[in-house]
Amino acid sequence: MTSTAEASPDIRPLIQSDRAKTTLYTDPEIFKAEMRKVFENTWVWVAHESEIAGPGDFKTAQVGQHPVIVVRDRKGVVHVHVNRCRHRAATLCEVPKGKTSSFVCPYHGWSYGLEGALRGVPYETGYEGVLEKAKFPLRSLRVEHYAGMIFATFRDDIEPLVDYLGPAKKWMDLFMKQGAGFPVTTLGEHKFRFPGNWKIQLENTTDAYHFPLVHKSFLTAVDSETQTTLDMMNNGGFVEDLGNGHSVMVMIPELIDLEDNLEAPIPEKFKDLAAELAKDYSDLEVRRIVRAVGGSGFNLNIFPNVACSMAFFRVLQPIAVEETEVRHIAIGMKGGPAAGNRARMRLHEFFQGPMGFGSPDDAEVWDRVQHGAQGDHDLWLMLNRGLPQETTMPDGTRRGDVSSETGMRAAYAQWAKMMAA
Amino acid sequence: MTTEAITLDEAMALTWYEADLLDNAEYDEWLAMWTPDAHYVVPIEPGAVDFENTLNYAYDDHSMRKKRVDRLRNGQSVSTSPVARTIRLQSRFRILKSDADTCELRCAQILTEFRRGRERAYTADVEFNLVRGDDGKLKIARKVVRLINSTDALTGIGYIL
Predict the structure, then answer these.
(1) Which chain A residue's Cα is nearest to B52?
(2) pLDDT tens profile A36-59
(3) pLDDT tens digits, residue range B98-146?
(4) Under DSSP, is residue A154 helix (H, G, I), strand (E, B) or coil?
(5) Which residues in chain A have Cβ-Cβ distances shorter than 8 Å to B154?
(6) Which among A28, A79, A130, B7 has the fewest CB atoms less than 10 Å away?
(7) Residues in A touching B56 (Cβ below 8 Å)
(8) Residue whose C-alpha is closest to residue A408's, from A246, A257, A181, A290
């Protein structure tokens, strides 16, 4: 996949372990290089298994700038194909999701099986002796999954996904406890764009420092018990560098493991829900569901494009150097209580998406960052918060307090490593 | 008590009044236009009908509408300070159903937003369920704003559609 002939910008003068130059947000050449060096050379999240639950179910996605189709074949195997006909490059599919038995190019009718094989070519005599169909399957990526999260890569020779995720796996397992005993399923998504570089959003998922200020209007709108829970600067949270650019930011330590502490009192805001659930579920089940409804107490940032963020999946898609698409995918309990899933969706609507009480304020400050980044490219972006208190854990990972920029340093270290390769 | 069905004129007068209140930030009057159990809904999926069991952009009961108004007024939100200026036009009105006390009205709405040097447009089908209150005046029992591009990536919408 690597096209070595293309020149790459020298990033060494632009980044240090605790700072970076704003050209990382503004330089189109760096963006072009990132799309190759980062996105074509690592595991990129493409789907949650529930989005393509049955045979023939598919969704469209992107791996870097490559349009792809994520599809489950009749045997249940998930494939990720570049969404490009092998004849003259037209996309095979332009709908975001659906169910099909094959992919047929709308231009000249070349048709492909779900597993990618070229099945049919109209008026085949024109290709007599010059087209060996077996040699023209869809370009397929390597696919692996963990905890229901499906990742793809162009590279056949990089480490297996589980090794790439490393210590992040433990946090993915904890995050999926939000199913409260039911399988986790996606419940729809909010999708929005902001005029700024993708790394601004990447940083934000591991930035507790902004929360009390940028989300003041949200904190004003919630009840006092929730305000206390979300007082993350004072809750004993922490950020841990999990290697390979991944990090976890624990904002509410008592909500790390949703199956712990089930005997704790049910928060006032969930009393009505608990009463409704009690009609159909045992006391223990009610406690388990209610505790999971509000989400986990942490954000797991998985480099480069996905996060398990409290109660939803955050997916970022670079569009251009100064344009990024963000998806907030709501999750819930498959086959679980409708009242529980309703509560989850209302909480999602409250904060997330273009009309939420949180996301538009995030998008506004990211927009400001991009605008300010046009000013004097010799100035540094400072990423050194929390360095004095950072400690090394027994397993060698670095840990800082909740508002330390440890997670950003982790992501940029991985970025620099891949960009220099 | 009149038994005549609610007319297009009367229904249109109400939704234009609502549009004018929103564009001119007269939110207290706006909050008073609704029945107590009414919802303001901005769905995502074009065919959605069961809004309660679906993820929406907004699914506001009275309490959430009030919070939304507070957010527009309290100056704490960086994306709504200042609030975007909006001008909305409604046209292509059609009564779908009407009797003496209730009415379903559908119309087209084109809204232009201006904020921080950027002008944007949002186009929508808007569905109103109106009911006649005890005082004889019409109230909004439900308003559903179906954005033409609801399934696409939107930008932050820091005002009421």
Answers:
(1) A342
(2) 999 999 999 999 999 999 999 999
(3) 999 999 999 999 999 999 999 999 999 999 999 999 899 999 999 999 9
(4) coil
(5) 191-193, 354
(6) A130
(7) 345, 349
(8) A246
